[in-house]
Amino acid sequence: MSSNRASEHVQVAVIGAGQAGLSVGYCLAAQGASFLIIDANARIGDAWRRRWDSLRLFTPAKFDGLAGMPFPATSYSFPTKDEMADYAEAYARRFNLPVRTSTTFERLWRDGNRYVIDAANARITADHVVVAMSS
Asked: Domain 6-55+96-131 in CATH: superfamily?
């Protein structure tokens, strides 16, 4: 563990800025919680952007929106992977969610009453952690 890591504390750390992590962020913001969402990708939605070009969601757009923001497409259309990626990015921007991209999660452990997350050049302590990443 490097002593050169910047350190910060939040009530809740959310690991992963996909649909689950962004949805949790929306709910935490509504509660007025201090939180941070971290994601290894350079840009919100990049996990979708890297998938095969022909990919479409298997659910119609009317079921693809997250809390507080419907998916911006015709109700019974099937969004592309890029439309889903752009929607996730727009969602985070609309609700001003504190997402830190390009932050690789390295280690998580409990230290007394707090959790400690080592991520690329940062150490984050949190009272609670939500793991919302796919792998």
From this structure: FAD/NAD(P)-binding domain (3.50.50.60)
Position 110: which residue type?
Answer: R
First to last CA, the chain: 23
- Strands 122-131 and 6-15, bridge-based pairing: parallel
Give 80-125 pLDDT, tens digit per residue. Answer: 999 999 999 999 999 999 999 999 989 999 999 999 999 888 899 9
Domain ranges of the chain: 6-55+96-131
**C-alpha span between 135 and 32 (Å, rounded):** 29
Pairing of strands 99-100, 35-38: parallel
Contact present, 68 and 95 (Cβ < 8 Å): yes
d(CA 43, CA 79): 19
Nearest 5°: the CA angle 135, 124, 19 is: 40
pTM (2 decimals)? 0.91
